[in-house]
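Appendix B. Raw example, untouched.
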Amino acid sequence: MGVPPFLGDNPRVRTRPVRPQELPLLQEIERAAGRLFAGIGMPSVAEDEPLPLGRLERYREAGLAWVAVDAADAPVAYLVAEPVDGALHVEQVTVHPGHARRGIGRALLEHLERHAAAGGVPALTLTTFAEVPWNAPYYSRLGFAVLPEDEWGPELREVRGREAAHGLDAWPRVAMRKAVTAGAAPDDDGRLADAVRLREAGEHQEARRRLLALAAEFPGDARTAYQTAWAHDVLGLEAQAVPFYERAVSLPGLPEQDRRGALLGLGSTYRVLGRRADAVRTLRQGVEEFPDDGGLRAFLALALHDAGEHREATALLLRLLAATSADPGVRAHRRAIEFYAADLDATA
């Protein structure tokens, strides 16, 4: 059996329109998230004031302001948008740092995409910092692509002009666009979340049946493909899991934690099926994308061993042991272990 994927904290994030009394909370979310920029050498961005209450209220009145909420119905993230050149432009999407890396920002953007699809709007746009990891690289994983300047409309050009006047062009910025696909995700009616709950209850065959139906209905949804792969993998149906894993890792939209799990699951499943070169290639890709992930490194070592690459496998496991073990004996000899991992033939 391959390794089933890890399900992130929020299989379904609840979003709703923002309420008037919550607008000051949006400013606090923005201030908290803005402080992250101080740690990457962008202090003026960290100190920038959030959108004023009057402007937030205008987004709310236009029906273009939403929040993601926790179990107590308190906002932990928000998104506001406006029409720009016939598209819906993401003016701001922000997640409180205490709730980051749980797919919440993605859920808000998907909500906006469904709203756009219902209104016949063809695309979403946004502007963002090109080199900040949680900005342009993140949006690229969600299906946004850089929009060349010669394709900007007059209103988007005005947006960029205001940003430049505000000093944001001190760091590279880009405009990005994503085409809206009607029916791109199955979350509106809760069917994906229902299938996840069946899995959690141990009803694996029924979860698999429902996920297969969803995967056929939403072939472009990476999360559905991921969960469908898992449903087969946990039942020992590795060969049937592979095409869904492959679909999941090839599509945009997987949260980071899910992508880790999908790469590990696919690589492990390749290994079980005897596809050694594919296992090494996939797990190596996972380690390159997530070098801090010990699980990916351990399974890469197993795949390398199977492929006859014993020296690289041994060195990888030694480095992992030195980096992660809490054993006092290992910690006492950590430098020596790291030294021999770099040169297995050394005897000095």
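End of appendix B.
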